[in-house]
Amino acid sequence: MAAQEEFFAGIPSKIQYTPGAGPRDVMCFKHYNAEEVLMGRTMEDWLRFSVCYWHSFCGTGADPFGFPTLQRPWNEGTPMESAKKRLHAAFEFFTKLGVKYYTFHDRDMAPEGSTLEESNRNLDEITDMALQLQSQTGVKVLWVTCNLFAHPRYMNGAATNPDCHVLAYAGAQVKKGLDIAKKLGAENFVFWGGREGFLSIHNTDVAAELKHMANFFQMAVKYKEKIGLKCQFLIEPKPKEPCKHQYDYDAMSVIGFLKHYGLESHFKLNIEPNHTTLAGHSYEHDVVMASAFGMLGSVDSNTGSPDLGWDTDQFPMDIRNTTLVMKTIIEQGGLQPGGLNFDAKVRRESTDLEDLFIAHIGAMDAFARGLRNAVRILEDGLIGGMLKERYSSFSHGLGQKVEEGSATLEEMEAFVNQNGEPKVTSGKQEKYESIFNHYI
Ligand code: XLS
Ligand code: NI
Ligand code: NI
């Protein structure tokens, strides 16, 4: 066999942790030290980084106004030939970067054929190779997902399409996706409903569509159990784009939907902060909300641009944001079997191949700093103590009864008659913010 072509020839075989490195040095980790133990766990285990296939290896830099700008050496030959080259490039990238997980859509790993059978054959062939590369390198699949939004057949939705024939196609595709997840040992499986929603209420039966979507998920649960697939199902909320009203608007809408249809024990959420901000919330909001309900499964670690109203999928570089996310993750005891997946793309103007490395290294370091900061916040316990004090009236007497759910309105009345007007207590927001900034 001919030696495997090297795609990232100028990049060292392993990106090193070099804590003293200066500002010019962007090809090393200054904060991410995979083996270092913090709060009883290695950084690698807390962070569980994953590289996404679609942006990093399929992205071309094309946007609605402009042609591709990114010339990638693996985009050569027939679609199947370039799928194979792309796979090798991807594994070279994972290994050099030192990341243990990757994520992909069925259609970004292998090209869609002209029939379902042909698409499945393509997927079989490429995932056979992926399985080999996984065992050679130790790199694993964080999650698989099915692309149920790009093909024209899905323009009116997949699981919520008004035509059951389209829903059936989506079901067949998910069946194969679950088989592939099992074959590759994926730890999670994601559903992102890009076209599950509507543009006009005039032509949409919302109640019917929601029920179909729930029944579709039920079929997936049944098939997963049938084939003995041991992975976590995740739903990824997003409010809009490409639809105007996506049903999976944000964390709370998805949790409500899952509970309404009795699906909550089978799913958790994959939160993408850029989607959270599109929903009008602040960066960390849905991570916190999902976690509060015990439903935070994984994070598509990216960021939007606060001054733009769309999914720009930028690499997360803001230490305040990564600190808040990591604080929530530590507080819930980690993300496993989920992880931090870089659903992020280099800008179409970042045209050098090395920019892919620089972007991932920068974002991994931003999360490593977030982790270190969050550990200091939690170990110091200052903010935690202030918060505990703020809610201390619920630890005894009437407050304790409210906490336990045994209090009555009559008791509330008796309490106020006895104790009169509550005293005004400062919320101390600026104090919290100043203390938080101390750790950043
Ligand atoms: C799109 C979504 C998508 C999912 C996987 O906005 O983020 O990339 O993560 O289908
Ligand atoms: Ni995503
Ligand atoms: Ni997105």
TrEMBL record:
Its EC number is 5.3.1.5. InterPro entries: Xyl_isomerase-like_sf (IPR036237), Xylose_isom_bac (IPR013452), Xylose_isomerase (IPR001998). SUPFAM superfamilies: Xylose isomerase-like. Keywords: Carbohydrate metabolism, Isomerase, Metal-binding, Xylose metabolism. It comes from the Eukaryota. GO terms for molecular function: metal ion binding; xylose isomerase activity. It catalyses: alpha-D-xylose = alpha-D-xylulofuranose. The keyword Transferase does not apply. One of its GO terms (biological process) is D-xylose metabolic process. The keyword Flavoprotein does not apply. Belongs to the xylose isomerase family. This is Xylose isomerase. It comes from Stegastes partitus. The gene is LOC103365049.
